[in-house]
Task: inverse folding
């Protein structure tokens, strides 16, 4: 029993996502597939799971060459996948999600609900994956949702399981639980591919580490032979600095003050519940927490994008609760939104146009109702230069840029003026290490120039690397406040709501 | 097998908070109710002589049990209704128990309608049961239209072309029924409904044409073609526009019950089939493999795809079989309700069906309930026109459309459509 991918090549228009990649996996073995965003890990796994078809190369299971036209074929061959973005229907129950596509039925296609529930409970007990079979997915935490995904895979009798960035959404404690589950699967003889960009996890869990870069496998190493620094250098292809270089913070006056803030989410559920904190000039405050604990709504409430139902927000002594984004802009607030493609950029607009989305209406970009395009273009060219945006020109649609460069366009737009408050939500989500380093250095530079900075990130490592002070959100409440050197376990406990 | 242990910590059911929007809505509806109370008191109560008597007939001339009716003092009845509506309005202005806002508006409107009928039938009698029966009949096409939309949208395809499907099916049903008999007419209507469904699916799924535009195309195509054929063919060959008469299936015993009998148990097979279909679709969508798969494709097609479910095929099948429902609705309209083809005879009823689908929150029983509400407004318009109240009949005929606007604009807040509704699925 073994799985072998050899010579896999996959081309997308303009890029070779996988270039002659090979990977093998034995039963009871954990292989970590390590690489930056865009290195081709997900493409490779989507080919293995039948979601993409490879242009070249073969997939062999137990020595037999197979062609996967759809995920149904891959499932039949014993391959299971836990996707990074869970493939669960939010309005279905746990049981419905597990049996979908494999429903036990009585006569005429009527679902045998008892049998379905029994299946879920059997797997749940055997592998110690606690779930409530009748709960709706939208009412359970991300950690439990992941267990449902694993049950789904096991119900299909997978012998090889691919986990795509499984720890990205978990608290440190949940990560430990997850590793326990992986051990259990391994002991049961399952072969496991573990996709990650977190170096420590690869070393901790894997029997073998395969490093990918720019669509190629660049190294295959054993965890005991390498350090995190070695892996980082292999992954990026040059020596990288894992720490964010910054001097001691020098906090001044209070700039942002949030008192008893309450914000609703789009289901009208109170997502931010009496949150209070302050951010001073010259300091970076990081907001940590598992995704979906109110971070998004907190930022939307402060930046005037969501209605505030209670409490108040003050910037430099002036109350700005539910102020419009434009009022905030004119007060020197810059906002890097969570989702750059949805709310940070207009993808079909050019780089130039995106650079002035926030200030097109004022001098010097426009005079009266007429835009001064000549000035605007010159200014965009200068920003592209200054902020190291790699683009063929300023007049191309911003959608043609890579994620990292799109993010730099936003940073350039938001940072290129006098600001007293920077609000950065997930500033480096899904971008390459080079861009991450650059954006981090820009954020620190703003702090050193005297701005107050609020950073929200679901990557605890990022929050810890950047912040001078950390607050943790759990269920919309502040569950703890920490200094920059606090132990990961303490922060992790607060993320689970059981700290302090 | 061990018992299922409910682990409370595994589930977090969020508490929904009332927003300032809900409070504002409650207040606005409070004012609307006060205005209605004023009209009821000023016009309906004091607009009739103090000794006027209204009579609501509760039996039809064809009923076994005759002479069931209720009579009451018109002014007193409307006066009481006005007081009740006033109380509801005051309660809404307090903006407490916001969940009941819609219910309060519903009850207020019902009382308004009853007071209106009491006023219109002062010193005469009104066939209440006739109107209720007509409500059921008028609701059938609307419900079938709503079910057509519902099955498509549950699979993730928006169908704006229901109107066109109904109209084409009505035309084909009339021609084939006239030439070869009722069953040929019904069969032909089903086929044309499914074919137009297939066209919509082909445009929306295969070519990823904007689904609204694809639906509009079908409506224009159907209106143009049927109008052309009606003026060129049917006007020449009049005997092709004379479908065979469809008799009612009077259900023994049940049909003799006063009020309920004439409302539900003395109809053509179309009506019974529609009620059965509502049950069957509810069971099908929520209890069977087919339903689970259709819903998964409409909620999260990628998740369905990763489990080996063919998203494209599932959507094709759903939209085409939904077309059968529209075909059936068109056949009912042309063969049982109107018994001939007229140019643009649907007159927007497909769109009302779409509103009923939304009002019914994409649920089969919801669609039926919404169909009855819209059917009621249609029946009211017809019957009141007979009473001769002095209200222009055009104004009354506007009612179903006004009801649609009110419902879609004001009452559907909070309904959640399938998450992937209207989004084409692109497989890499």
Result:
């Amino acid at each position: 029993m073994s799985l072998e991918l050899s010579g896999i090549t996959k081309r997308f228009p303009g890029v070779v996502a996988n270039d002659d990649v090979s990977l093998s996996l034995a039963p009871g073995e954990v292989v970590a597939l390590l690489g930056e965003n865009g290195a081709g890990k997900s493409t490779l796994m989507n080919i293995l799971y039948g979601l993409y078809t490879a242009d070249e190369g073969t997939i062999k299971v137990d020595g037999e060459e197979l062609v996967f036209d759809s995920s149904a074929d891959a499932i039949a061959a014993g391959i299971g996948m836990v996707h990074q973005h869970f493939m669960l229907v939010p309005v279905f129950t746990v049981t419905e999600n597990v049996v979908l596509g494999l429903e036990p039925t009585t006569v005429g296609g009527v679902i045998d609900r008892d049998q379905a529930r029994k299946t879920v409970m059997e797997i749940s007990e055997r592998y110690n994956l606690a779930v409530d079979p009748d709960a709706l997915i939208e009412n359970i935490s991300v950690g439990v949702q992941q267990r449902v995904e694993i049950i789904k895979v096991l119900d299909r009798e997978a012998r090889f399981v691919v986990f795509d960035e499984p720890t990205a959404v978990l608290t440190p404690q949940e990560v430990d639980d997850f590793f326990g589950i992986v051990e259990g699967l391994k002991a049961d003889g399952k072969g496991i591919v573990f996709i990650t960009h977190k170096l420590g996890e690869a070393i901790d869990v894997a029997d073998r580490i395969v490093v990918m870069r720019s669509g190629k496998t660049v190294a295959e190493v054993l965890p005991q032979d390498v350090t995190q620094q070695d892996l980082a250098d292999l992954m990026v292809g040059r020596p990288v600095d894992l720490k964010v270089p910054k001097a001691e913070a020098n906090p001044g006056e209070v700039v942002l003050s949030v008192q008893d803030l309450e914000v609703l989410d789009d289901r009208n559920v109170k997502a931010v519940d009496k949150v209070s904190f302050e951010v001073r000039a010259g300091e970076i405050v990081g907001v940590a927490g598992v995704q979906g604990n109110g971070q998004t709504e907190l930022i939307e409430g402060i930046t005037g994008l969501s209605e505030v139902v209670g409490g108040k927000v003050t910037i430099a002594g002036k109350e700005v609760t539910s102020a419009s984004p434009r009022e905030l802009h004119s007060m020197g607030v810059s906002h890097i939104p969570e989702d750059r493609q949805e709310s940070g950029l207009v993808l079909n607009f050019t780089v130039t146009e995106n650079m002035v989305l926030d200030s097109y209406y004022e001098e010097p970009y426009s005079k009266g109702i007429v835009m001064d395009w000549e000035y605007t273009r010159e200014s965009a060219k200068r920003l592209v230069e200054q902020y190291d945006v790699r683009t063929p020109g300023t007049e191309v649609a911003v959608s043609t840029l890579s994620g990292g460069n799109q993010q730099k366009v936003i940073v350039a737009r938001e940072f290129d003026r006098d600001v007293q408050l920077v609000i950065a939500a997930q500033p480096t989500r899904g971008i390459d290490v080079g861009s991450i380093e650059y954006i981090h250095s820009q954020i620190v530079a703003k702090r050193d120039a005297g701005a107050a900075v609020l950073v929200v990130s679901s990557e605890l490592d990022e929050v810890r690397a950047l912040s001078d002070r950390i607050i943790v959100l759990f269920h919309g409440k502040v569950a703890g406040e920490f200094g920059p050197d606090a132990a990961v376990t303490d922060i992790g406990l607060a993320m689970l709501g059981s700290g302090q | 097998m061990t018992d299922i242990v409910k682990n409370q910590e595994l589930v977090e059911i969020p508490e929904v908070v009332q927003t300032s929007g809900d409070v504002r809505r409650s207040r606005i509806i409070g004012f609307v109710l006060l205005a209605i109370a004023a009209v009821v008191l000023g016009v309906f109560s004091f607009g009739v002589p103090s000794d006027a008597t209204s009579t609501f007939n509760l039996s039809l001339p064809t009923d076994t049990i005759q002479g069931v009716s209720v009579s009451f003092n018109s002014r007193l009845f409307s006066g009481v209704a006005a007081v009740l509506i006033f109380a509801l309005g005051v309660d809404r202005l307090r903006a407490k128990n916001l969940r009941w806002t819609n219910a309060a508006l519903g009850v207020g409107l019902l009382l308004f309608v009853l007071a209106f009928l009491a006023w219109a039938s002062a010193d005469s009698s009104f066939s209440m049961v006739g109107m209720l029966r007509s409500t059921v009949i008028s609701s059938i096409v609307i419900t079938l239209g709503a079910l057509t939309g519902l099955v498509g949208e549950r699979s993730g395809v928006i169908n704006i072309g229901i109107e066109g499907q109904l109209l084409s099916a009505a035309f084909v049903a009339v021609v084939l029924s006239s030439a070869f008999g009722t069953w040929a007419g019904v069969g032909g209507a089903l086929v044309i409904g499914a074919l137009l469904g297939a066209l919509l699916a082909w445009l929306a799924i295969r070519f990823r044409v904007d689904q609204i535009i694809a639906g509009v195309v079908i409506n224009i195509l159907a209106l143009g073609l049927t109008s052309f054929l009606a003026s060129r063919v049917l006007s020449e060959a009049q005997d092709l526009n004379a479908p065979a008469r469809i008799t009612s299936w009077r259900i023994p015993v049940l049909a003799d019950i006063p009020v309920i009998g004439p409302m539900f148990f003395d109809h053509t097979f179309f009506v019974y089939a529609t009620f059965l279909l509502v049950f069957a679709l509810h069971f099908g969508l929520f209890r069977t493999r087919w339903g689970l798969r259709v819903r998964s494709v409409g909620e999260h097609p990628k998740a369905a795809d990763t489990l080996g479910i063919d998203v494209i095929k599932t959507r094709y099948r759903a939209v085409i079989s939904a077309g059968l429902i529209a075909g059936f609705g068109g056949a009912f309209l042309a063969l049982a309700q109107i018994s001939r083809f007229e140019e643009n005879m649907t007159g927007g009823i497909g769109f009302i069906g779409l509103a009923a689908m939304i009002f019914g929150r994409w649920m089969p029983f919801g669609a039926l309930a919404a169909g009855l509400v819209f059917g009621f407004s249609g029946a009211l318009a017809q019957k009141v026109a007979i009473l001769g109240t002095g209200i222009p009949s055009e104004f009354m005929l506007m009612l179903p459309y006004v009801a649609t606007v009110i419902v879609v604009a004001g009452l559907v807040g909070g309904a959640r459509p399938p998450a992937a509704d209207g989004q084409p699925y692109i497989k890499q």
About this structure: Residues 6 and 22 of chain A are 4 Å apart (CA to CA). Chain A is about 30% helix and 25% strand.
